[in-house]
Design goal:
It is built from 10 helices and 14 strands. It is an alpha+beta fold and 344 residues long. The chain has a single domain, classed as Jelly Rolls (Sandwich). A hairpin with a 2-residue loop joins strand 8 and strand 9. The longest helix is centred in the middle third of the chain and has 26 residues. The termini are far apart. Pfam families: 2OG-FeII_Oxy, DIOX_N. Belongs to the iron/ascorbate-dependent oxidoreductase family. This is Fe2OG dioxygenase domain-containing protein. Keywords: Iron, Metal-binding, Oxidoreductase.
């Protein structure tokens, strides 16, 4: 089977085809063996942030600030997303990936900003990057889009994405307060109400030699915040103090990481986190991510309130959000390589 056929059928199709006698060389990474460090990941109790006593809210904001400064990552429990809806979203995602390849190809998407795109790897195998991952990417805000199959995809995803925005907006209020600003500070600076939201479904099928491949290589996300939930299969690792920390979240929690544009806006006070995804030989991992960012046409630069010429000079040059995404998505993923291009 040639590479073109492999990429057209996706990783799921490749695994289920019976043709997979060995790992295709295009998918082999030189090494993904890294030093692992088991650490307790910061956890935010959402109910204390939004409905707790003044003291509980203050403590929750402190936890968020410390997590953003030291990790760029935290888990969220006791949030407002119904468990029923999280289960339904995973179910509808599984059924999308179970569609026949020709049905999924209706949404293959040729252009970066097409409303709906599905494929394999990273943008269908950009350059030399071939990843053990199938994906579906849907722009859901400010204009909502959805695949026409499965039939209930639109209704389920529209409800889910609206509630995910609600969670993200409350977290951004806490982050704003942790910066010493009023709670709607980031909302106003990033025009969150009119901002972009991208729904990303990732499928990581089991691999007979998981040590040879990567689900996603080390990278940081564009945007402000990414909220991610998963099925009961782990695989996310975050880079903390030079060590890879495996993330093992409690059921029905959200995994939240700060993006490059949070780092730019805060002038480096809160850094985006580098993370990667490893796969396994036994089970399929599935994740549902919503990426939250400013409007595509917004130019994002360090906030004036967080810059001073003596102690905190500006560290990043301004760039239109759309141009930043295009820069990241048309080059190979490698740590913070895209963010490095806008450093002063």
């Amino acid at each position: 089977m040639n590479l073109y056929s492999q990429k057209n059928m996706g990783i799921k199709g490749l695994v289920e085809s019976g043709y997979l006698n060995s790992i295709p060389p295009e998918y082999v990474f030189p090494s993904n063996l890294n030093d692992l460090e088991v650490e307790e990941v910061p956890t935010v109790d959402f109910s204390q942030l939004t409905a707790g006593t003044p003291d509980e809210r203050s403590k929750a904001i402190q936890v968020i600030g410390k997590a953003c400064r030291e990790w760029g990552f935290f888990m969220v429990i006791n949030h407002s997303m119904p468990r029923r809806l999280m289960d339904e979203m995973l179910n509808v995602g599984e059924r999308f990936f179970d569609l026949a390849e020709e049905e999924k190809q209706d949404h293959a998407g040729k252009e970066l900003f097409d409303p709906i795109r599905c494929g394999t790897g990273f943008n269908n195998g950009l350059g030399n990057v071939f990843l053990w991952r199938d994906y579906l990417k849907v722009h859901v805000h400010p204009h909502f889009h959805a695949p026409h199959k499965p039939a209930d995809f639109r209704e389920t995803s529209e409800e889910y994405c609206k509630k995910a925005r609600d969670v993200a907006e409350e977290l951004l209020k806490g982050i704003s307060k942790s910066l010493g600003q009023e709670e709607n500070y980031i909302h106003k600076k990033m025009d969150v109400e009119s901002g972009s939201q991208l729904l990303v479904m990732n499928l990581y099928p089991p691999c007979p030699r998981p040590e040879l491949v990567m689900g996603m290589p080390p990278h940081s996300d564009h945007g402000i915040l990414t909220l991610l939930m998963q099925n009961d299969v782990c695989g996310l690792q975050i880079l903390h103090n030079g060590k890879w920390v495996p993330v093992n979240p409690p059921p029905y929690s959200f995994l939240v990481n700060t993006g490059d544009h949070m780092e730019i806006l805060t002038n480096g006070r809160y850094e985006s986190v580098v993370h990667q995804v490893v796969v396994n030989s036994n089970a399929t991992r599935m994740t549902i991510a919503t990426g939250h960012g400013p409007p595509l046409g917004a130019i994002i630069s360090p906030a004036a309130e967080l810059v001073d010429s003596e102690n905190h000079p500006p560290k990043y040059q301004g760039m239109k959000y759309r141009d930043y995404i295009e820069l990241q998505q048309t080059n190979q993923l490698e740590g913070k390589s895209c963010l490095d291009r806008v450093r002063i």
